[in-house]
Amino acid sequence: MDQAKNESGGSLFLRSLRNHLIGSVAATLVVGGGLLAFDVGQIRSLALSTGDGPLFLVLLFLGLLSTFGAVALAVAVMTLPKSDGGKADGI
Fold first, then answer.
1. I need a labelling partner for 50 at 20 to 30 A (CA). Which of 36, 65, 76, 82 fits?
2. Which domain holds residue 20?
3. Is 5 part of any domain?
4. Does residue 7 lie in a domain region?
């Protein structure tokens, strides 16, 4: 059986990526919600006072999600177990 597969047949990488994705979505909601709840830099006031408030909120949360998602992907890749016994490539 392949080392990259777990008992249920799913890929270890995809399972790890899914878990990190859930964490990045949670971090996005916490940070974005905190920015709006505490009105940091009057960001909530600005969003509510303009007609483009929904667009602003979509862009804010998509920006945060892409940032936290990239970090989560990097962490997921870097924490995968090495399949070559831990030897460095070419060194």
1. 65
2. 12-78
3. no
4. no
pTM: predicted TM-score of the whole model, two decimal places: 0.75
DSSP 11: B
- The total of structural domains in the chain comes to 1
What average pLDDT is seen over the chain?
85
In the structure encoding, which two tokens stand for residue 19, read together? 């878990």
Average of pLDDT values for 39-68? 95
Position 16 in a domain = yes
> What pLDDT score does 1 carry?
45
Break the chain down into helix, strand, coil percent, rounded to 5. 70, 0, 30
Residue range 12-38: mean pLDDT, rounded: 93
Kindly state the DSSP code that residue 81 receives in the 8-state scheme.
Answer: P
